[in-house]
Amino acid sequence: MKENIKIESLNIYFKTKAGNVKAVDNVSLELEKGKVIGLIGETGSGKSVLGLSILRLLAGNAVVSGSIIYKDIDILNLNKTNIVGIRGKEIALVPQNPGTALNPIIKVGKQIAEGIILHEKAKRKEAKTKTLAIIKRLMMDSSISKAYPFELSGGMKQRVLAAIGISSDPTWLIADEPTKGLDAIVRNQVYKTFNKIKKRKDTGILLITHDLILAEKLCDKIAVMYAGDILEFGLSKEVLENPKHPYTKGLVNSQPHMNLKPMKGLSPSLINLPKGCKFHPRCGYAMKKCFLEKPLLYKTPSGSKVRCFLFDKTRKYYKDI
């Protein structure tokens, strides 16, 4: 489908004085239109960098190679004028921090209407009417449109960002940590907001999150990232209830609603990554081969894909180290 987003062999690193920070390492992933794809993993795994790369919103020191195909066009090759035509209109972003994303001196309704005026060339009266309709659709009171951001709670600000994101009826919405820093009650409100958006079958969502409860409720499929790699990809229920990769198992078990059992060790430096499988220094199943070679993504009987030699049916067995 042309409106799928097809990421192929994507590499992203950032030039710094300390060295090159390898944030995304040869990632290939297809995002299906009308589906919610979750991107989960620890802080620093490359989730947000991957999401922002789709809209070409990376810092100036980023070096990007590979391709991101949308409607038969490689987004990475678009000039500034053409990429601006896609941002917000066809692929929209719900940023990570509503406290800094919203303009504190402009009323919420005007901020929602701004995208409608820009992308749809609507008159202010038309934009206001659509703004109130969006606010109602996302279960907010119409009086919100006359409020300033500082008058709203964290959860309400997040819902306003979602309203801005869908204001021009985009094909895709990239939501970056929409429940970060919110309590359980407010997280549930945000879930209801995104569930409303999900029910509009023509909108696909890339959900970048640490919140595995939200991911399980909302996502159709989930990709697990670690140190710039996709380690596991499959149906949401399968990945979170029957995880295959040792890292995914550790990530799930470390959650407060599960065993709250922390994984040993720390994520590696993205400047000095381990050779072979990047997870092997923390893995209880590491074999000699894991130290020497990077595993491919192997398909499991359940349909999930896992980057682990344990699922390589052709492998020769090595003595554990």
Automatic annotation (TrEMBL):
Family under the similarity heading: Belongs to the ABC transporter superfamily.
Name the record gives this protein: Nickel import system ATP-binding protein NikD
EC number(s) reported in the record: 7.2.2.11
PANTHER family in the cross-refs: NICKEL ABC TRANSPORTER, ATP-BINDING PROTEIN (PTHR43297:SF13), OLIGOPEPTIDE TRANSPORT ATP-BINDING PROTEIN APPD (PTHR43297)
GO MF term list: ABC-type nickel transporter activity; ATP binding; ATP hydrolysis activity
Annotated Pfam families: ABC_tran, oligo_HPY
GO biological process: peptide transport
Organism in which the protein naturally occurs: Maledivibacter halophilus
